[in-house]
Automatic annotation (TrEMBL):
Residues 52-134, 164-396 form the Dihydroxy-acid/6-phosphogluconate dehydratase N-terminal domain. It holds the Pfam family ILVD_EDD_N. Keywords: Iron, Iron-sulfur, Lyase, Membrane, Metal-binding, Transmembrane, Transmembrane helix. PANTHER family: HYPOTHETICAL DIHYDROXY-ACID DEHYDRATASE (EUROFUNG)-RELATED, HYPOTHETICAL DIHYDROXYACID DEHYDRATASE (EUROFUNG)-RELATED. This is Dihydroxy-acid and 6-phosphogluconate dehydratase. The chain crosses the membrane at residues 128-146. Belongs to the IlvD/Edd family. GO terms for molecular function: hydro-lyase activity; iron-sulfur cluster binding; metal ion binding.
Amino acid sequence: QEPNSDYNLATPITTTSGLRQGLTSYGDAHFSLFLRKVFIKALGYSEDALSRPIVGIINTFSGFNPCHANVPQLIEAAKRGVQLNGGLAVEFPTISVHESFSHPTSMFLRNLMSMDTEEMIKAQPLDACIMIGGVYILFMLPWLLFSSRRRDIFDLPKYSLTFLGCDKTVPAQLMGGISANKPILPLITGPMLPGSHRGKRIGACTDCRNNWAAFRAGEIDVEEISAINEELAPTIGTCGVMGTASTMACVTAALGMMPLRGASAPAVSSARIRIAEETGANAVAVAKASRKPQEFLTKESFLNAITVLQAIGGSTNAVVHLLAIANRHPQLQGVITLETFEEIGRKTPLLIDLKPSGDNYMNDFHNVGGMLALLQVLRPLLHLSAKTVTGQTLGEILDAARSRMLSFEQNIIRPLSDPLFPSSSLAVLHGNLAPNGAVIKASASKYRHLLTHTGPAVVFENSADLALRIDNPALEVTKDSVLVLKGIGPIGNPGMPEAGLIPIPRKLAATGVKDMLRLSDGRMSGTAGGTIVLHISPEAAVPRSPFGIVETGDLITCDIENRLLHLDVSDEVLQSRISQRKNALEAEAGPAQARKKKRGYRGLYERSVNQAHEGTDFDFLSAAGPGGSD
Ligand code: FES
Ligand code: MG
């Protein structure tokens, strides 16, 4: 194709015929070209430069975003890669969303960022686009500490719920980029390195939670938790465990959208910079071939991505993101469902020994070969004919790198014959409590017996209710109770906060209880662990939601073998409670009425967001939405 052909920028203004009529927003095509040349030349570009493939580079740097602190270096290297290969690199900004500094949650802003990304890719004269992004994982501790005086630390947990959120840049960029359907090349910022405390490695953010839980239980004091706070994020980059950031990086590589080692190279490594240069080089080739995501991404690409998700014990958030991403693709809309995750999970073992399911950090994974080594092991389970962004198939890439197969002693990537967890690290539950599904990261359960458990519910109606009562010594709760948190679903608490990791009531924590069966319609950070059922759909805020009618004392069963989430009340009681609640909601003129009147992005969000099993995208953005395939 001609570089930036719709804009005609490669065409000299002396040309008077043969112009494409695509973008004639200033009148005739010739005058439109003339005017655009005026302004692009103000930037100093020559006709020669403009005759090259133009590669846009999305700059998501922000002074509030430590996960993206290396973006300026990556841009420089990506530009070098573009320009050494005959392209013209032009950077431009989109919004930058950091986990901890995106009130109310970063998930609230994911769809906004996807719209920004889609529209700016469509709007500008670029032939391919490098999307530089990290993915953010919950990192609440620094926020808590510097937002308050140290000595107030014991008062803080009640505020924490409103700040929880997660990991949105790469999902947002993939959603936007696939919808824009111009050639796109994700470039990940990379994970941080682990820190050290008293001779032990620690890293964001699994160890944020473990240590915070120890602090709540009185096992460590305020001086020690403060010292730990200094070390949890010792370098820039995304969280260094298999949280959502690392999960989405691995999944994006498995989709065939970036170099395989680009998933794990540390943010502060020279390897990371070379990957940026390589991405620049790839972008020129992809621009020339005009290889668009809707053309090379197929169902098989997503099956590979989900296989990897299961094999790495990836974040539950990736389920929501992958559903949203697939639903942007007109041929895959509705093809990838929760059932797909469940089916693949049943035949895929967990092979990676990384936190939170295992013990190690992302740089350990990188050091033993990262995704390239993992995919060699997973080979029998993959669709090797899936195309990648470079035009090669996944099988061709793996064949070319056979020499990098694991041929040395290591304990990070297990063989298929000796997995860390036999199958279904992520499992999908159904039942009268979750007719449209729920998700559990079974491999991260601390007390495995809780995966099959029946207990009485202790219900919290929303985050505020939880904050008020969870540590009340009078709360009637035992280690066998099932903690239920409603009202943190996509509509109920816009952004679906990562509050699903309901804290163990302090009085139980103090006796050594480290895990309980916990249920919510929200999310949890990919770095967190426990027996936590998430994403219950439909969420409690939906008037007919069975989850909305659970009462304290009801018996709830989680049965992992049968993938069951069951509320032990009769159908009649269930239906009558649902009707009563629906009528009550309507009688009070209802939240739905209030939503209609809300202004701004928040109003748009609440009116348009779909449920977790659909990806919590806006209904009008998914490929099934009105005009979705344009
Ligand atoms: Fe950015 Fe964890 S806060 S990846
Ligand atoms: Mg996260």
